[in-house]
């Protein structure tokens, strides 16, 4: 099947502007800006993930020599550094292309949702790439400044004694209840004032001014340090949860029209969103064939709706996924 290819704008990895208005990345932008926005101390910006993906997609069509030549054109540097860049990155997985386009049921569901097939193909490639990057040998995340402050406040508020040190040696200790109550009240007041500033400042300048009055030159950062030397790999169920979360967000406002499927449909055709996502997990190789079927045989020998993915998500509904990052897509989820 013929489909549209992304143009090569030879964009640097952090240059989101060149692909901002690329039609084929419309669906990728929607997911990336929701889950991987660029953030500084105050503002949110457009994600750089679509540009990273576009570069990886284009490189997937090139030989090793072609990749190096292209990269050297964008980033003129020593060739050994370029080789090291590629040695540390797994290539974009496009191995399921035929499996995707040959899936009549998936193609019919895409028609029923009135989705652009080319745009959706690029979204599927992006989501699968992102899940792999964040869930397989991914670097761990340390505690953010917000989490460290939260932990400190919690310990202060429950403490019955405070010990302060200078240069590793104790220089103050108190168990006095009244002194401790002043400390706890001061901490509570600071946190409440800080939250009020963050939530109610009308613009960036007002935010900066009020933070300075509070004794801060910036916001308390929520960004987590990336611990590249410590790795984490999630099991298949957790990868599937993350994959499903991306597509549930993308599909949440999309309505189906079964008439768009045409007249040549079978009992396997469906507009159920969870079944559609379940079938995609099979397409990309996250799950087995049992996740693709619309109906399954239960223990009594009766045909019942396939609820494999639904059951998996329900099993983890009260358990949050760990915060994740990747080596390629270095924002965190």
Task: Describe what this molecule looks like in 3D.
The chain has 333 residues and is mainly alpha-helical. Among the domains are: 94-141 and 227-315, no CATH class; 145-213, no CATH class. Helix content is 47%, strand content 10%. It is built from 13 helices and eight strands. The strands form four sheets. Strands 1-2 form a two-stranded antiparallel ribbon. Strands 3-6 form a two-stranded antiparallel sheet. A two-stranded antiparallel ribbon has the order 4-5. Helix 1 (26-35) packs parallel to helix 7 (117-135), helix 1 (26-35) crosses helix 11 (236-251) and helix 11 (236-251) packs across helix 12. The longest helix is centred in the middle third of the chain and has 24 residues, at 177-200. The chain is globular. It starts with 25 loop residues before the first helix and ends in an 18-residue tail after the last helix.
Structural class computed from helices and strand pairing: mainly alpha
Tell me the span between the first and last alpha carbons.
34 Å
- Residues in helices, as a percent range: 40-55%
Number of strands: 8
Please state the overall shape, judged from the principal axes of the Cα atoms: globular
Sequence of secondary-structure elements: HEEHHHHHHEHEEHHEHHEEH
Q: How many strands, which pairing sense, and closed or not: the largest β-sheet?
A: 2 strands, antiparallel
Strand order of the largest sheet: 1-2
Structure characteristics:
mainly alpha; two-stranded antiparallel sheet; 13 helices; 8 strands
Secondary-structure topology with pairs:
Layout: H1 26-35, E1 38-39, E2 44-45, H2 49-59, H3 64-74, H4 79-87, H5 97-101, H6 104-112, H7 117-135, E3 138-141, H8 145-158, E4 162-166, E5 169-174, H9 177-200, H10 204-213, E6 226-232, H11 236-251, H12 273-283, E7 295-297, E8 303-305, H13 308-315
Antiparallel strand pairs: 1-2, 3-6, 4-5, 7-8
